[in-house]
Each structure stands twice: as structure tokens, then as C-alpha cells.
């Protein structure tokens, strides 16, 4: 019953539409003994699942296993390392899984119930700042029965818990190689997923080969994958055109997407697959900053930002304005910021500042990352600076940093205002509100809201029918608008670009928008 309602609520996110040609259609005659090369601008910030709540999941989904995951075409978690899973009660307070028999890690170590318990417990023990421990807020304790049974006892009802277990952060790791109280830092990976990580060069490439001992649902259509990490999308697209790589994922600019679509004949038959995106971009305001900590300043920024102009100038139809933290296509979506602020209005922004006794132009520093969301990010922040300074009410300084140091900076609270992106852990409104509120906000900036964390989220998590939680999340968004600690900007679409001889692109993205590399293959005929 729970899974069926999830399917209805999130079906739109699983839809992938082939935009051009037939080069990405499945081919029953494809060979499995082949290497596929994929490029991305999103390199891992960590190789340890206990520290990962970002694009590192891309690699982890392919080398680790979770108890439940998303088989191709499914928008509900189904057993992977587990043989079966389900709630043991009607109140969503206990979730039990039975492991597949004979599971082993790539190093030969056995996977049993104690291994699973160890893997989950260490996430909570280590509790990396901005890490995935925040996903386990409803978990009380993990119990094992025999070698193959794991029971998750929840401190409070949480109908989203199976979706949390399906995130790559909950990957199963061998106790002998992953310390219980600290992050593994030797640059190596030991998992039980579809692939083995043969070698890894940070920021450069990851070499994956098929795991001969893998037991799970992934039907691997290739024997090996090379993931190449690019600092910028331009050389990545050039590598695709020159056939140095077979496909790209994450980081294409709007101009590049449009160029690939409009110039098919000149691009050696390259194909584009578009997915309905649930990824969002937003600004985070640090309340400890002298300027950003003032409500009137945050309200004035919200009153001035022109999302239509931002999307039109920078993203050219590959994104759309967003007026709530919950995007279109997800239950609970609203237009709360537009309802409150309407169209951009300099006079209203000036009045907000004047009423707070602020008359001089407000000086603020905006930070963004250079290599996580694609090279359009710099253009986006230049446009935000232009809009705010054109009002005469602000003087904006722009600063940027590569993701690794950028992440360290915002987790230390070093940035007054900074841009963040969010790719869903799972397709539910809970995942667009809960991670950003509370003392352990994934933004690195604590955001205390008792009504959201103590009333609205607990109430919504009792509902197994996720389409029935709209009221709670619309109220949560009213609170977010009042505080203006987070300012949604836009939601995007996701694109996979690939050569004409590559199949499987339309099946490669799961509901978490993570690429399942095993779906890609090289066609034997064209």
C-alpha cells in the first residue's frame, strides 16, 4: 500500500523523454564485454558513504549496495542486498529486512545482519557535519536477529524510511576496512555493488569493472565504465564530440544543450535525452552575518530577484522559475514566494529596508561553487549581482571556490550568502524541506523552526499516502517565506548526451537522478 501511493506521487520524475533520433534506444543484440566512458562536472567530495550527502552518490550507487534501491523503471524502493523488506506494523515504527543469501564484499568478506547494523550505526556515530546522519533522524536503534534479519526501530513514525534506506549514503561497508568512529581516508572503496572501483584519481577519473561476485537486481549491459571528471563543461563537450568519451551527465550549460539539439548533423549524430528534473537551486542566508542576519535585508533580496530574467538569460529554457523549495511535480508544490512578493519591485524593496532603518546600500558577499553545477553558475551569479545592484540598494561582491573547499567553507559558517543546489534523495516533499531545517541542516547553517521540525514533519510522516501531505508542506513553505532563510531560484531539467552508438541513456537515471552506469552499452549495429 505504501509503495503504491509513492508510485502515484512521483511517477512524473521517472519519465525520460527521448528528444532526438534513435541512437539511445535499447538494442537486444548489444554486447556486454565492453567499456563505456562517461563525463561529468560533478566529482565526488568523498568516497565514504558515511560522509556523503551530495553528488558523491553518483559513484557510490555503482560500487556499493543498499538494502533497497530503485530498479530501472521503478519509483519505489525494492530489495537489492535484501531479499525482502517491509514495515512490521501499521504505524510505520519498525522496518524489517531479510538479506539475500551468500552476499560478499569485493574483498571476500561476508555480509550479514551485523554488517548492515555496523554500516548504519557508524553514520550516526561519526555524524559528519552536513553529512547523511541527518537522514536518520527518525531512527532509534538497529536490531539483528540471526545472520540475515535486520530490524530498524524508529523513534517516531516515518513512512519515508524505506526511501532513506535506498539512498547511497546507506551503503553497506565491511567493518574491517571502514572504522566505526571516523571516515575512511585511504582513497579506496570496498563494496558489493555492480562494479569494483579499480582505480581512482581525485578530480580526474574513476575506473570501474564488473564485480564478479555481485548479487542484486542490476542487469549490467557493459563490462567496465570509466568516469572522467571535468572542471568545466566545454572540454567535456569537446571530448564527447571527438569520441574521447561516450556520454555526459551533469554540467552541460544551456547553450551546450541547445547547440547539441540544434546541430545534430554537425555533431556526429550525438543524441540528447531529457528527464523531468526535480533538481533545484537556491540561496542560503547566514543569520550570523551582520547584513544577511537582518530579516529586512533578506526580504529586500527576495523582493528584487527576477527569476524570469535569470532563467531566460542564463538557462534559455533548460530551467524554469521556482517560487517554493518544493518543485513542480512533487506533492505540496506551491508558489509561496510569488504569492508574497509578486513581481520584482524596487520601491517595495526600498520600503522594506527603510522601515528597518537601513538607508545606505547594503554590502554583501555572495559565494558559489565553480565545479559542482556546471559553468553556467558563474553567469547566474553575475546576473543576480546585476539585478540587485541595478536597484541601487545593494553592493554585491562575488566569490567562488571549487566544491571541496566551498563545502568546507559553508559547513564552517564562513559565507554570508551562498548558492546551493539540491538533487533529491527521493521524490517526496519531505526531502525538499527536512534536510534544510533543524540544527544539522545540510546547508551547514542551523535553521531552527519548531513548528516545522516538531509538528509538520512528524505529522506528515505518519501518512503512507504521500499524496495526502500537501497541507503540511504548504504550511511549511509559508514559514520558509516568512523567514527568508532560503530563497528558491529555479528548478532544472537533466540531460544525458551520448554518441549515436550508445544505448540505454533513457533508462540510466533513477528517481534520485543518479546515473545507473550499468544501463549503458555500445550497440553492435546501427
UniProtKB/TrEMBL annotation:
One of its GO terms (biological process) is peptide transport. Keywords: Signal, Transport. It is found in: Cell envelope. Residues 77-440 form the Solute-binding protein family domain. Pfam families: SBP_bac_5. GO terms for cellular component: ATP-binding cassette (ABC) transporter complex; cell envelope; periplasmic space. One of its GO terms (molecular function) is peptide transmembrane transporter activity. InterPro entries: Peptide/Ni-bd, SBP_5, SBP_5_dom. Residues 1-20 form the signal peptide. It comes from the Bacteria. Belongs to the bacterial solute-binding protein 5 family. This is Extracellular solute-binding protein family 5. It comes from Streptomyces pratensis (strain ATCC 33331 / IAF-45CD).
Amino acid at each position: 500500500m505504501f509503495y503504491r501511493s509513492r508510485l502515484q506521487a512521483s511517477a512524473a520524475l521517472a519519465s525520460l523523454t527521448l528528444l532526438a533520433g534513435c541512437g539511445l534506444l535499447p538494442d537486444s543484440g548489444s554486447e556486454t564485454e565492453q567499456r563505456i566512458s562517461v563525463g561529468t562536472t560533478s566529482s565526488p567530495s568523498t568516497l565514504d558513504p558515511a560522509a556523503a550527502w551530495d553528488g558523491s552518490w553518483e559513484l557510490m550507487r555503482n560500487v556499493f549496495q543498499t538494502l533497497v534501491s530503485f530498479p530501472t523503471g521503478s519509483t519505489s524502493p525494492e530489495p537489492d542486498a535484501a531479499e525482502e523488506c517491509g514495515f512490521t506494523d501499521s504505524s510505520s515504527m519498525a522496518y524489517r529486512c531479510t538479506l539475500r543469501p551468500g552476499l560478499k564484499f569485493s574483498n571476500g568478506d561476508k555480509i550479514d545482519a551485523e554488517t548492515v547494523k555496523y554500516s548504519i550505526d557508524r553514520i550516526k556515530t561519526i555524524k559528519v557535519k552536513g553529512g547523511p546522519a541527518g537522514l536518520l533522524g527518525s531512527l532509534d536503534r538497529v536490531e539483528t536477529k540471526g545472520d540475515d534479519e535486520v530490524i530498524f526501530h524508529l523513534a517516531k513514525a516515518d513512512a519515508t524510511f524505506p526511501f532513506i534506506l535506498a539512498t547511497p549514503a546507506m551503503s553497506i561497508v565491511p567493518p574491517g576496512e571502514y572504522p566505526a568512529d571516523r571516515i575512511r581516508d585511504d582513497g579506496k572503496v570496498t563494496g558489493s555493488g555492480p562494479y569494483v572501483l579499480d582505480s581512482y584519481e581525485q578530480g580526474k577519473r574513476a575506473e570501474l569493472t564488473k564485480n564478479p561476485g555481485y548479487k542484486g537486481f542490476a542487469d549490467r549491459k557493459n563490462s567496465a565504465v570509466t568516469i572522467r571528471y571535468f572542471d568545466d563543461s566545454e572540454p567535456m563537450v569537446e571530448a564527447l564530440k571527438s569520441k574521447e568519451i561516450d556520454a555526459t551527465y551533469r554540467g552541460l550549460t544551456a547553450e551546450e544543450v541547445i547547440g547539441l539539439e540544434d546541430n545534430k548533423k554537425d555533431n556526429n549524430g550525438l543524441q540528447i535525452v531529457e528527464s523531468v528534473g526535480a533538481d533545484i537551486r537556491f540561496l542560503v542566508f547566514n543569520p550570523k552575518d551582520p547584513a544577511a542576519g537582518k530579516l529586512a535585508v533578506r526580504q529586500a533580496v527576495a523582493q528584487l530577484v527576477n527569476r524570469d530574467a535569470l532563467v531566460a538569460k542564463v538557462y534559455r529554457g533548460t530551467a524554469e522559475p521556482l517560487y517554493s523549495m518544493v518543485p513542480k511535480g512533487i506533492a505540496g508544490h506551491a508558489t509561496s514566494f510569488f504569492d508574497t512578493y509578486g513581481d520584482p519591485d524596487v520601491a517595495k524593496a526600498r520600503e522594506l529596508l527603510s522601515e528597518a532603518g537601513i538607508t545606505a546600500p547594503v554590502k554583501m558577499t555572495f559565494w558559489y561553487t565553480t565545479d559542482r553545477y556546471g559553468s553556467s553558475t558563474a553567469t547566474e551569479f553575475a546576473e543576480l549581482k546585476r539585478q540587485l545592484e541595478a536597484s541601487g540598494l545593494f553592493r554585491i561582491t562575488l566569490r567562488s571556490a571549487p566544491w571541496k573547499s566551498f563545502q568546507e567553507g559553508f559547513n564552517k559558517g564562513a559565507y554570508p550568502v551562498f548558492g546551493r543546489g539540491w538533487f533529491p534523495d527521493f521524490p517526496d516533499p519531505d526531502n525538499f524541506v527536512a534536510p534544510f531545517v533543524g540544527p544539522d541542516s545540510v546547508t551547514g547553517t542551523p535553521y531552527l523552526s519548531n513548528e516545522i521540525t516538531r509538528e509538520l514533519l512528524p505529522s506528515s510522516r505518519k501518512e503512507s499516502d504521500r499524496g495526502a501531505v500537501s497541507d503540511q508542506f504548504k504550511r511549511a513553505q509559508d514559514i520558509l517565506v516568512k523567514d527568508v532563510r532560503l530563497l528558491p531560484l529555479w528548478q532544472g531539467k537533466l540531460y544525458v548526451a551520448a554518441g549515436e552508438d550508445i544505448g540505454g541513456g533513457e533508462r540510466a537515471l533513477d528517481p534520485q537522478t543518479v546515473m545507473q552506469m550499468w544501463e549503458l552499452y555500445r550497440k553492435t549495429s546501427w
